[in-house]
Amino acid sequence: MKKILAGLLVCSTLVLQTGSAQVSFTAFAGGAFLHPTAVFATVPNLSGLSLAAADAALMAVNLDTGTTSPQCSLLAVNTVTSQDIPAMAMVPEGTLINLLFSTGVACPGAQGRRNNGTSQNGVGFGL
Questions:
Q1: Strands, DSSP E only, in the chain?
Q2: Cα 105 from Cα 112, distance rounded (Å)
Q3: pLDDT digits (tens, 9 = 90+) for 51-109
Q4: In CATH, what number does 44-102 get?
Q5: How confident is the prediction for the chain on average, in pLDDT?
Q6: pTM of the predicted structure, to 2 decimals
Q7: Is the Cβ–Cβ distance between 44 and 30 less than 8 Å?
Q8: Residues 99, 41: Cα–Cα separation, whole Å
Q9: Cα four-point dihedral sign 78, 83, 88, 92
Q10: In the chain, what are the domain boundaries?
C-alpha cells in the first residue's frame, strides 16, 4: 500500500508472511526507516485438545489463553469444546483466546441429547 501526497511518496507498507506469522513494515519518505507495525499469528484449532495442550498450542504461535469456562459435555474432563476466535483467523500476537471446556457430565435435563453449544449458565460462544 502506498500513500501519495502532492506527487511525493510519503510512506510504503510491506507485508511479509512466514508460516503462521505476518509482519508489516512501514518505510517513510526521507530515509530507509523500517518500523514493524504489527505481528500477526494464525489461531490454531483447539477443539478436542486438553486445556494444557491448547495452552501450549497457543503459546507456540505467540497467543495467550484468556478466560476458561466450564461447559457441560460428555467429552473427557478439561477437553476444549469451543473457542471464541475461530481457527485459522489472523490476529495480533498476544491476543487472548477464550475457551470453553468439558465438565465430563451431561447437562441437567439433556437426557442423552448432545450439547447445544451453551455453558451450564446458558451462555456460549455459538460456534
A1: 2-5, 8-18, 21-28, 34-42, 64-71, 80-83, 90-92, 96-102
A2: 11
A3: 999 999 999 999 999 999 999 999 999 999 999 999 999 999 999 999 999 999 998 88
A4: 3.30.10.20
A5: 77
A6: 0.62
A7: no
A8: 18
A9: negative
A10: 2-39, 44-102
